[in-house]
Amino acid sequence: MLCQCCGSGFSAGRRDAKYCSARCRQAARRQRLRSDREAKQNTMTLESRVLLDRLAAVLPATAARVESFVIVNGADCTEAAVKLVMSAYAELQAVKF
Ligand SMILES: [Zn+2]
């Protein structure tokens, strides 16, 4: 059998084994998670992009944080995340210190 991660031959204990070792199984899992994350990030809508850019113009550090939040949680929450931050910002603007 050939390991689906490193490609080396191995004798499987189980018929459905795909990887030669726990190490390769882990590496493959990590790779899968990474491409899932990238796929999610790539599906960010144009509307969300525009919102995020608008936020970045005012609060660049916060926009960067929202962006990394989106990478973990998926592009479909970008709009909600940005709107939340923007309303919080508007509220703070209204506060007199
Ligand atoms: Zn392997």
Secondary structure layout:
Blueprint: H1 22-42, H2 46-58, H3 60-73, H4 78-94
Helix pairs in contact: 1-3, 2-3, 2-4, 3-4
What does it look like?
With 97 residues, this protein is mostly helical. The protein has helices spanning 22-42, 46-58, 60-73, 78-94. It folds into two domains: 1-36, no CATH class; 43-94. Helix content is 67%, strand content 0%. Helix 2 (46-58) runs antiparallel to helix 3 (60-73) and helix 3 (60-73) runs antiparallel to helix 4. The chain is rod-shaped, with a radius of gyration of 21 Å. The mean pLDDT is 84. Zinc ion (ZN) is lined by residues 3, 5-6, 8, 19-21, 24.
Average pLDDT:
84
Query: Separation of termini?
Result: 69 Å
SSE ordering: HHHH
Question: How many β-strands, per DSSP?
Answer: 0
Bound molecules: zinc ion
Given as residue ranges, the uncertain stretches (5+ residues, pLDDT < 50) are none
Task: Give me the Rg, rounded.
Answer: 21 Å
Q: Biggest β-sheet, characterized? A: none
State the helical fraction.
55-70%
| Residue fraction in strands | under 5%
Describe, in short, the structure shown.
The protein folds into two domains: 1-36, no CATH class; 43-94. 67% of the residues lie in helices and 0% in strands. The longest helix has 21 residues, at 22-42.
